[in-house]
Amino acid sequence: MAFAIKNPPEFTLDVEEWTRQTISNGAEMAKNVIEPLLNNEVYLKEEKERLEHVTLVTLTAAGWMGSAAPYTQTVTVNGVTEEMEPILVSALPDGATLEEQKAYSKAFGLVSSGTASVGDDTATFKVYKKPVVDIAVGLKGV
Q: How many whole angstroms separate alpha carbon 126 and alpha carbon 115?
């Protein structure tokens, strides 16, 4: 028996309760009970993978707009939607020198102490002091 996995998978709380009638009718049980549960499983697996994924974005020193604080920079982030709530994470490369780490920490501190919002395929960052170096940051959950 084949089950239909919706694309994209859909999560539902409306799953029919197993009864003597559904158990005795395998086709009805598959369509009304097993298929929604299978779709829920696929949906939750994909959602977990998305929540753990980190998308890197680069904020350039020259990209900050505005003549006074807050300065803003909008970047393209494929796949992000305004309903998402990504988490800002450090993208300092492994093996960075002490000098690179210090410059990155200062820039990341300026970005992380500001604010950010996401829209469909965009992220807008606001800072109160412009970083003087380009900085790659991660958005977890995109």
A: 5
Q: What is residue 81's three-state secondary structure?
A: coil
**In whole angstroms, how far apart are CA 56 and each of 59, 67, 125, 139?**
10, 27, 14, 6
Q: In terms of pTM, does the model score above 0.90?
A: no
Token pair recorded at residue 114? 């500001």
Q: Where are the beta strands (DSSP E) in 41-142?
A: 54-59, 71-76, 87-90, 115-119, 122-127, 135-140
Asked whether 39 and 131 are in contact (CB, 8 A), the reply is no
pLDDT exceeds 70 at position 61: yes
Q: Which amino acid is at 93?
A: P
